[in-house]
Specification:
Bound molecules: cobalt (II) ion
Order of helices and strands: EHEEEEHEHEEE
Shape: globular
Strand content: 35-45%
Number of helices: 3
Largest sheet: 9 strands, mixed
Length: 134
């Protein structure tokens, strides 16, 4: 059911420093910071040949990553995103398999303008999973 790894999201306490680390130390191609107020984050996209890394920093009050950074002060992997062809079919299969879909279970438009859902990390070995319809 799941397809390609779309991205790995890493929450970082200092976005400028993290972007510089990826650009300079790791020699990756990085985007300028992109504010996404509707998602409560500022994102730097790191383009790799086979996938993307998203460096996330909280934006505004009630950022969904504020608590994560409070618990992981030096940053950490926040979620992984797998692509699916049909998010409703994927959701229904996941629920039938007993996995917990976060929120009201209805797909939201994610950071790339495509429908996404998040799955409970306790059902997937401590990893928050995003599925995105591509
Ligand atoms: Co994501």
């Amino acid at each position: 059911m799941i397809g390609r790894l779309n991205h790995v999201a890493i929450a970082v306490p200092d976005l400028e420093a993290a972007a510089a680390t990826y650009a300079n130390t790791l020699g990756a191609k990085v985007s300028p910071p992109l504010a996404q107020p509707e998602h409560g984050v500022t994102v730097v996209f790191v383009e790799l040949p086979n996938t993307k890394i998203e460096l996330l920093h909280p934006l505004g009050d009630n950022s969904p990553i504020a608590n994560f950074l409070a618990k992981n002060a030096s940053g950490g992997i926040h979620h992984v995103c797998y692509e699916v062809d049909d998010i409703i079919a994927a959701r229904d299969k996941l629920k039938a398999e007993g996995a917990r879909v976060l929120g009201d279970g209805e797909p939201k438009i994610g950071a790339h303008g495509k429908p996404v859902l998040f799955l409970h990390p306790k059902d997937f070995y401590g990893t928050l999973i995003e599925i995105e319809q591509v």
